[in-house]
Amino acid sequence: MLLALVAAAAYAVDVTTKVAAVARLEPGSYVEVVGSWLTLTLVRNPGAAFSTGTGFTEVLSVISIVATLVVLWVARRVGSTGWAVGLGLLLAGVLGNLTDRILRQPGPFQGHVIDFLRLPNWPVFNVADMCINAAAAIILVQAFRGVRVDGTREGDADSEPDSEPDSEPGSEPGSEPGSEPGSEPGSEPGSEPGSEPGSEPGDGPAGGDVDRTTRDPRP
Q1: From start to end residue, where is composition biased (Low complexity) (predicted)?
Q2: Helices and strands per DSSP (H, E), number in the chain
Q3: Are 7 and 92 spatial neighbours (Cβ–Cβ below 8 Å)?
Q4: Which run of H or E residues covers position 115?
Q5: pLDDT value at position 194?
Q6: Could you report the per-residue pLDDT of 50-90, keeping only the tens digit for each?
Q7: Considering only CA atoms, which of 146, 165, 164, 166 is closest in space to residue 154?
Q8: Which residue in 115, 156, 166, 203 is the catalytic one?
Q9: Among candidate residues 7, 107, 101, 4, the one with its CA nearest the CA of residue 45
């Protein structure tokens, strides 16, 4: 949901500013916004971001379509806020420039992208270019942090369950819970080692009681 909201908002800003630039700016004219640090001027760019690759408009259009499909595929597994914002900005930037290449002159997949933002000693660019670069920075930060697209971190491992959770420390394998160490399997708790099952504590050896009476040794 966050990815879709970011993508929709950034795409709307890009399209709106391009429409306003075409309607209000003249090619070759400059409108100062922040002195000479930021000016507005209309440039129709047949290439990629920052006026690069001007001779590969059709190729760039195909790359943009592939990139859009890849982002939509990866978006199904997004579980991190950082990745959602980064991929949302990337999707908006790619779609923003792809819209110009499909709909604007001179024709489908050959259209020129509208650029209008100018900084000193820097190529003219647009909002879509800003979104693509911001997305690249966010994705790099997430990668360095070890955060995956689904929100998990590298190195996370599920703890292994205990093999015998009910056995008490020191008990022998196979002994019942609560039995004392050294007792034989099946013996009752509290019975002495070596006693037969069912015998009570204090019973003498098997075979009956010993005759403790003494005889008079005199004849």
Answers
A1: 170-203
A2: 4, 3
A3: yes
A4: strand 113-118
A5: 53
A6: 556 666 778 888 999 999 999 999 999 999 999 999 999 99
A7: 146
A8: 115
A9: 101
The catalytic position among 14, 100, 129, 150 is: 129
d(CA 149, CA 194): 63
- Specify burial of residue 218 (Cβ count, 10 A radius: 0-12, 13-18, 19+): exposed
Give the distance, in angstroms, between the CA of residue 143 and the centroid of all CA atoms in the same chain: 10
- Angle made by CA atoms 48, 49, 52, in degrees to the nearest 5: 55
Measure the CA–CA gap between 107 and 37, rounded to whole angstroms.
Answer: 34
User: Is the model's pLDDT at 34 over the cut of 80?
Assistant: yes
Q: 67: closest CA among 46, 94, 93?
A: 94
**Amino acid letter, residue 99:** T
Q: Which two tokens stand for residue 58?
A: 């059709």
pLDDT at 1 (0 to 100): 86
14 among known catalytic residues: no
The answer to whether residue 211 is catalytic is no
Q: Which residues of 40-61 are buried (b: 16+ CB within 10 A; e: fewer)?
A: bbbbebbbbbbbeeeeebeebb
